Amino acid sequence: MSDKYDVIVIGAGPGGYVAAIKAAQLGLKTACIESWTDKEGKNRLGGTCLNVGCIPSKALLEISHKYEEASHGFAHQGIIAKDVKMDIGKMMERKEGIVDQLTGGIGGLFKSNGVTPIYGHGKLLANRNVEVTDKDGKTKTYEAENVIIATGSKPIQIPPAPFDGEYIVDSEGALEFTEVPKRLGVIGAGIIGLELGSVWARLGAEVTVIEAQDSFLPVVDQQVAKDAFKQFQKQGLNIVMGARMTGAEVKRKLVNVSYEDAKGKQEAKFDKLIVAVGRRPYTDNLLSEDAGVQMDERGFIFVDDTCKTEAPGVWAVGDVVRGPMLAHKASEEGVMVAERIAGHKPQVNYDCIPNVVYTFPEIAWVGKSEEQLKAEGEAYKVGAFPFAANGRAMAANSAIGMVKIMADEKTDRILGFHVVGPQASEIVAQGVIAMEFGSSAEDLALTCFAHPTLSESVHEAALAVDGGAIHIANRRKKK
Asked: Helix, strand or coil for residue 401?
């Protein structure tokens, strides 16, 4: 087989493997390079998301939520389940089984679509040549008409708390604990820190989350964020805001942590410490000096709105470029690039990328927050509806949180859609679809929603935008 391809994709995560499949479907001879190997040294597709990110973390979140509900929520509903126990080993087996099934599935999709997998570390050379170094150190060079860089990201390590892989771990290590730590510290109250902290808190750990910023989830609408913060506190998460990490040292199998907050210098001891302060692009040894691709000082690759780099025929998608580090954003960019290579003219609507925090309650949003609208001087109106007034949420013992919708004061077009509560990750899709089609709040208000459903809260929030909610008292309009 020739070593020249129409498209070579570097990276087989959600951006890369999707781009490769779409390119092959469009009739382009395509190869996808991946360096990931498992503990046994076997090649694995799927990147961070499928192997040590989105999928395994959601498996643990789901299992731990079921355990929490069985332990503390069943009795309230008349279900008597005594001596509920958690088998951590079995839980981890379940997680790995899901990962194996999905990563193996990508191999099957490659085969059925005619994508050639190439295993090893890919490095872009000049003129769209790609050098691949396999795990034995052997190199081979491939030619391409187009190259798509989709190498993803990796956890950021901070000087005060270097990873040791046992007591001080990153997000990947937090998915591999063999027992529930009695006391768990989490550095960073962002999406990853909250998700991982909540998993082990549900399973019995005393969890303290240390966050440097003064505001909780500043990227989230603050009415929604404050509601979520109260729920996390009720669940026993000790979230310390405005705390600057100064050091972490392992002594006698305990992590001694020091930090400074408004009260001064503080110390804490933990059995395990998870550092979840963000991720950085994985661009190590990715580009030769004459590749023609430009990066900033943080390792992000410069691209235009269509994910083109400054080098002809070279594209980049996902975590290595600007924008949120989200698997679905990477996939959409991958599809766009493949179609553009094939001569089509699609565009990603970056205003309609949903964000989700998979805690309980879940937090999800699309579009702008109320704080953003105020800062931009936008004239807007807002409607909200609590799940406490939703019959289906009450029946499911999940009547917490709300749906909140912001719309333009004059045009009524939806500008922001925010959910905190049960199945927020699913409900937000209704907002994404509405905004993608340029819907008004009235469009949602005139739509018939099934009863009883959680989605009725969307209907009521849309009605509330103009003071017409049925099942709550409406705000009085200003005269």
From this structure: coil
- Return the pLDDT at 479: 46
Kindly give the pairing relationship between strand 4-10 and strand 279-281: unpaired
Q: pLDDT > 70: what percent of the chain?
A: 99
Give the whole-angstrom CA distance, residue 176 versus residue 155.
Answer: 15
What is the predicted pLDDT for the residue at 2? 64
Find where tokens 């699609």 sit. 346
Distances (CA, A) of 152 to 1, 174, 283, 462: 29, 19, 8, 37
Which stretches in the chain have pLDDT values below 50?
1, 479
Is the four-CA dihedral 24, 106, 332, 15 of positive or negative sign?
negative
Q: CA of 189: how far to CAs of 102, 197, 210, 230, in Å? A: 29, 9, 7, 14
Please confirm, yes or no, whether 121 is among the known catalytic residues: no
Q: Which residues of 129-153 are buried (b: 16+ CB within 10 A; e: fewer)?
A: bbbbeeeeeeeeebebebbbbbbbb
Question: 10 Å Cβ neighbour count for 367?
Answer: 24
Closest CA to 103 of 51, 59, 138, 179: 51
Q: Virtual CA dihedral for 444, 450, 456, 460, nearest 10 degrees?
A: 50
CA distances (Å), 205 to each of 49, 197, 318, 446, in order?
A: 25, 9, 34, 46
* Distance separating alpha carbons of residues 382 and 22, to the nearest angstrom: 39
Which residue is catalytic, options 121, 328, 418, 451? Answer: 451
pLDDT computed for residue 478 by the predictor: 55
Q: In this structure, are residues 235 and 203 in contact, taking their beta carbons and an 8 Å threshold?
A: no
Q: Cα–Cα distance between 193 and 171 in angstroms, integer?
A: 8
Q: Compute how many other C-beta atoms are within 10 angstroms of the C-beta atom of residue 13.
A: 32
Q: Residue 132 in 3-state DSSP? A: strand
Dump pLDDT digits (tens) for 21-69. 999 999 999 999 999 998 889 999 999 999 999 999 999 999 999 999 9
**In the prediction, which pLDDT does 399 show?**
97
Predicted structure pTM score: 0.96
Tokens of 242: 């405005």
Q: How far apart are CA 355 and CA 361, in angstroms?
A: 14
Cα angle value 53/299/364 (rounded, 5°): 40
Looking at residue 330, its pLDDT comes to 98
Nearest to 150 by CA among 320, 339, 336, 329: 320
Please state whether beta strands 362-367 and 414-421 pair in parallel, antiparallel, or not at all (unpaired).
antiparallel
